Amino acid sequence: MAYLDEESFLLQSPTARRLFHEVAKDQPIYDYHCHLSPKEIATNHRWENLADIWLGGDHYKWRLLRANGVDEEYITGSASPREKFQAWAETVPYTLRNPIHHWTHLELRRYFGIDLLLSPATADEIWEEANARLAEKDFCVHGILDKFQVKMVGTTDDPADPLDHHETIAFSPLQTKVLPTFRPDKAFAVDSPKAFNAWIEKLEEITDTGIHHVSDLLQALQKRHDDFHAAGCRLSDHGLERCPGLPCDDADASIIFDKARRGLPVTAEEKEKFTFFLMVFFGQQDAAKGWTKQLHLGPFRNVNPRMFNLLGPDAGFDTIGDERQGAALITYLGTLAQRGCLPQVILYNINPRDNYLFAAMTGAFQDGTVAGKIQFGSGWWFLDQKDGMELQLNALSSTGLLSRFVGMLTDSRSFLSFPRHEYFRRILCNLIGTETDRGELPDDFDALSKLIADVCSGNASRYFGF
């Protein structure tokens, strides 16, 4: 079989191939969680060259470049775009069995119509051909969103961020719905008073309020929550090593807030209590507005202090964490449920050992009000590849309802990442189709087609109310 064969790639049975090509392939995309730039969408951004669109900000590729012995100058440094692309071309042949090898060549085919394998021998030809394609009129942000039938994009936005780019997008001719996602993680940083107070100042400015007491903070966050809702936001998101599990009352939260505002040290226990206090508040607000709360749990971030000091965050120096997730998550979700304010929730784990923990936990908090109200989210970050996706799908299927799953997202900063939806759909169709052809699922193409269409797009559209 040819590499990345259009008909059979990742599809190992006749029913798998039929499900993908007749049902999944042309489903619209609801990319409800990503890190695409609202500014680039608002301005219908264009790219100068292949390195600009393909390598800039992509820490997946940066990690492999470093692992291949490439100097940082050719990754995030001052080397020219062509030199950086050459370093990537020299690295790609070493990425066999890493999902990046699949993604690299799917992206070359789907965006640029190039079916060559990237290597030093093909680098010049691919560079010239891809750059020629980038110069064409339709190769812009809006053109990409239209080409891949992206019905919705959920960006990731801090409460202190302005929403002017989203306003511009809303009044543009773009058919894709682009909505902000409320990500207030910087509100938890009371253990870093300098950064926390700088963020408070930004929040004060955008809300035109003074924030002197914890009650002022809640009022400002409520205002921004309202502003986000008016801009179309229907999801929140939190990226945490683990969910906080130490309850905190108003008095303790006020003491901790005051210490941070005065620049005094805050202990790890105090930070967890303050985070719990705010997370309960955010849960109440999400439930009141009918939002979905996403919990991305488990990474150890910025673990290499030398490189963090040189390059800052989001540069590829994060890893899978091994925090114990269960007890604290139960405390948090249980608190919201007890108070009658548990919103729709999607749980994402980054350590595969937690697959069954998270999948089973969703069943303990379903309340019969919304189908699939508590979701076990798709394979995330280090798990958004074939093995990780299959592990997630199997854990979900074994403990809950795969048929209610809201499906894949890119979680990406790159506009070249939409083929990851195709990758997921091929894996999903192969799982269902192969089990059908083995007699493990009913040979009912209509029922199978409904499951595939729902997981690819229908469930997301209904669940989020788009």
TrEMBL record:
InterPro entries linked to this entry: Metal_Hydrolase (IPR032466), Uronate_isomerase (IPR003766)
Tree of life domain: Bacteria
Pfam families hit by this protein: UxaC
Pathway(s) the chain acts in: Carbohydrate metabolism; pentose and glucuronate interconversion
Keywords, ordered alphabetically: Isomerase
Isomerase among keywords: yes
Enzyme class: isomerase
One GO MF term attached to the UniProt entry: glucuronate isomerase activity
Catalytic activity: D-glucuronate = D-fructuronate; aldehydo-D-galacturonate = keto-D-tagaturonate
E.C. numbers: 5.3.1.12
Family membership noted in the UniProt record: Belongs to the metallo-dependent hydrolases superfamily. Uronate isomerase family.
PANTHER family for this protein: URONATE ISOMERASE
The protein, known as: Uronate isomerase
Organism (species): Luteolibacter soli
